[in-house]
């Protein structure tokens, strides 16, 4: 059955090339940095990134940029993705995105994309040190799955969505802590906003959003205690068309800064205009090994309510769309959609399915499969997270 599924999906995909990036130019590698690989790659190619630290990146064509199996790889900001047209797809997966050396913060900027932008298993900066603001502007179909990020330091916004449509699954988005008080001419500053929604639709599944803590007021010289700043809001919304739809998600304003006097705690939600829309039903989680090679065992992992049935859906392309009947986001192209019942969740609410495959069909260099889990229980069907699978 799985061989038939892979063969059907492979028949839908054009021939693609795989470029290997290795900071040490080890055996089998093509480039020592990601940017020259992206420049050389043709639309639709895959760039496999081995462990290492790499420079900044600007991309304006559909590519799949993925960290190799078990690789710890980071890219320096700024990272800029733009111009992904309708019917095209851009994927970045498994990478750390960190500010350039000596910088207080950076930006991961996605703009002017009609086609799909899929950001998965990426970490953006660090808490209280150096953060990265994710800025999505005028994009129609952005998916973020299992990403964690902190806004640019100090007091930076975690994620800014402007005139865009986003689907979040199992993400953590945090505003950055504010600047501490050091003197009367360098006061404490407010914590950053977790998620700033401007004329955008954001649908969150099993996602945590927090505002940044206000800058403290007790770090001045000679133990001088100054005024502390306020915590940032978890969600700041502006624009009558803006929506924050949520399923199994949590959002909490930032803590107040401690000082003389203390600041105020941040609001959980500050809705200047727009609407908050709850989605009902349980949460289903899904994860799998992102890079797969022949004759090695890989696994699909599912979590959710005990006894619920699980269906694994596979597709050759993404097409994120909110489906009201299941009150959740379908991430897969329905024209290449294959649904496979895989079983029921056990007494611990989990299910693991090991798999292997013997190799790709002749003439196919790489196969990208978009996968998503669906659970079926007392509330009906609900969608879980998606995952990009790369078969080499």
What's the quick description here?
With 392 residues, the chain is mostly beta strands.
Shape: globular
Q: Describe the main β-sheet briefly.
A: 16 strands, parallel
Average residue-wise pLDDT: 90
Please identify the structural class as seen in this structure: mainly beta
From the N-terminal CA to the C-terminal CA, the straight-line distance is: 19 Å
Structural summary, described in words:
With 392 residues, the chain is mainly β. The chain folds into two domains: 17-278; 285-391, Immunoglobulin-like, CATH 2.60.40. It has helices at residues 2-11, 34-40; strands spanning 18-21, 46-49, 52-54, 57-59, 64-67, 73-76, 79-82, 89-93, 96-98, 105-120, 123-124, 131-145, 148-150, 159-162, 165-169, 172-174, 195-198, 201-205, 208-210, 235-238, 243-247, 250-252, 269-271, 275-278, 285-288, 291-292, 298-303, 309-315, 318-323, 328-332, 338-344, 350-355, 367-377, 380-391. The strands form five sheets. It has a 16-stranded parallel β-sheet that branches. Strands 3-6-9-11-13-16-19-22 form an eight-stranded parallel β-sheet, with no helix packed on it. Strands 26-34-33-28-31 form a five-stranded mixed β-sheet. Strand 1 (18-21), helix 2 (34-40) and strand 2 form a beta-alpha-beta unit. It is globular, with a radius of gyration of 22 Å. The mean pLDDT is 90.
């Amino acid at each position: 059955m799985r061989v038939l599924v892979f063969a059907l999906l492979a028949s839908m995909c054009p021939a693609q090339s795989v470029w290997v990036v290795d900071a040490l130019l080890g055996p089998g590698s093509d480039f020592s940095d990601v940017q020259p690989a992206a420049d050389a790659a043709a639309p639709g190619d895959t760039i496999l990134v081995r462990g290492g630290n790499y420079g900044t990146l600007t991309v304006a064509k559909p590519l799949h940029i993925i960290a190799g199996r078990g690789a710890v790889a980071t890219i320096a900001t700024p990272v800029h993705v733009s111009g992904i047209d309708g019917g095209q797809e851009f994927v970045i997966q498994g990478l750390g995105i960190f500010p350039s050396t000596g910088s207080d913060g950076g930006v991961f900027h996605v703009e002017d994309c009609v086609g799909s932008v899929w950001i998965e298993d990426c970490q953006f900066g660090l808490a209280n040190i150096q953060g990265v603001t994710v800025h999505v502007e005028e994009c129609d179909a952005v998916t973020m799955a299992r990403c964690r990020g902190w806004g640019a330091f100090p007091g930076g916004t975690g994620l800014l969505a402007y005139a865009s449509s986003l689907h979040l699954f199992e993400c953590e988005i945090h505003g950055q802590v504010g600047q501490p008080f050091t003197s009367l001419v360098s006061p404490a500053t407010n914590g950053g906003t977790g998620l700033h929604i401007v004329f955008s639709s954001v649908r969150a599944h099993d996602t945590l959003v927090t505002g940044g803590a206000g800058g403290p007021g007790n770090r001045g010289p000679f133990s001088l205690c100054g005024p502390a700043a306020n915590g940032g809001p978890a969600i700041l919304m502006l624009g009558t068309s803006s929506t924050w739809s949520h399923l199994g998600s949590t959002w909490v304003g930032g803590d107040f800064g401690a000082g003389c006097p203390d600041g105020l705690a941040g609001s959980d939600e500050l809705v200047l205009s727009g609407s908050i829309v709850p989605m009902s039903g349980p949460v289903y989680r899904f994860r799998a090994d992102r890079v797969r090679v022949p004759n090695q065992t890989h696994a699909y992992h599912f979590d959710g309510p005990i006894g619920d049935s699980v269906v694994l859906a596979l597709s050759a392309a993404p097409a994120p769309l909110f489906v009201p009947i299941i009150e959740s986001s379908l991430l897969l192209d329905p024209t290449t959609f294959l649904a496979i019942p895989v079983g029921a969740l056990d007494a611990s609410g989990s299910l693991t399915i090991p798999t292997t495959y013997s190799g790709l069909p002749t003439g196919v260099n790489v196969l990208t499969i978009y996968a998503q889990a669906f659970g079926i229980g007392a509330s009906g069907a609900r969608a879980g997270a998606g995952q990009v699978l790369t078969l080499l």
